[in-house]
Amino acid sequence: MKVIKIDKNDWTRGIDKSRETYQLFGPVTDKNQSVFKQLGKTAYPEMGRTDTIMSPKSVLFPQTEKILTASLDESVENHHIMQKPAADYSPRAVIGIRPYDAKAVQLVKMNFDTADYRDPYWCDAYEATTFVGLAVNQPSAADFSTSMGSGPFAEEGLDVLLVDFADHYLAKVLTPKGEAYLAGAGFDAAADTDASLATIETMKQAAEAAITTTVPTDKLKEKTLLDLHGAPFWEDIAFTCINCGTCTFVCPTCWCFDIQDETKGKSTSRFRNWDSCMSPLFTKHGSGHNPRGEKTQRVRQRFMHKLKYFLDKYDQGSMCVGCGRCVEKCPVNIDIRSICNTMNSYEPQK
Predict the structure, then answer these.
(1) Three-state SS at 344
(2) Angle between helical axes of 336-345 and 295-304 (0-180°, round to 10)
(3) Which residue from 190, 145, 152 is spatially nearest to 2, judged by alpha carbons?
(4) Is the pTM of this model over 0.85?
(5) pLDDT tens-digit profile of 289-331?
(6) How far apart are CA 50 and CA 329, in angstroms?
(7) Judging by beta carbons within 10 Å of its beta carbon (0-12, 13-18, 19+), is residue 218 exposed, middle or buried?
């Protein structure tokens, strides 16, 4: 394994050099919040900011995305035939993605890239993207990533892992894509591999020890689905929920979307937009029937999907990476950690 030392005095120069080959995305301040956005020619990733309010999932899965277009003008060739619009899938790099967000990308990939179906929009963007991660030296109080198969220094889904020191970064090169990005940025100062890996391991252990929340998931797999579905605690959990959908929008693994067609003049376009299972309209049929018309049903769906349905379908752990965003942003203090504990420990009455 190769480790590169990046002097922070050379950081902006390297970022600028990498722009010659890559579209860059990274955390920036927008309306007093840190969010992931495409970096303009004079913008640089703000690596010193705390966790972003939104994950970088929009890099692969935009909040609104035009997926098909057609002309209604009968004098035009191929009129009334939907076609995929041109899109830019040139190399791109996400700088500063946190390890749990990179893990989330791998969970979402199980849905968009399967043996039976490959979503071309998500997969084409994914294949063009290099993920340059930033280790979490000081986890937040809401971080429980170590309980969910990730962690502050986890490497799954990353091409490079950056570790922040006072005046430099140590970059663990994890994949050929990561090596290509560092080379394109001109970051080529090799560090002492053994000494660097030992230092990184010490920092990793300290960061993991700083996460004091442990969320048990060991019994979820053995739970009978219908027992959990019919459990009596869902009414209590849903009592304070206002169905705002904040949890689903800040969650890095939520992938629900809606399809809408819009026509203007003789042009029509089909858009894919983020949607939320917490919305009453999400499951409403054209007939007017809604199989999840009650708030409790929607709350149960969200947590059962995250913690049980996904686990049963893929056997790859929960559909949660422990980033803690939903814990921090829920306006009525619903906490997925306590719900997971409730589900994990639930025993139906005989």
Answers:
(1) helix
(2) 80
(3) 190
(4) yes
(5) 999 999 999 999 999 999 999 999 999 999 999 999 999 999 9
(6) 15
(7) exposed
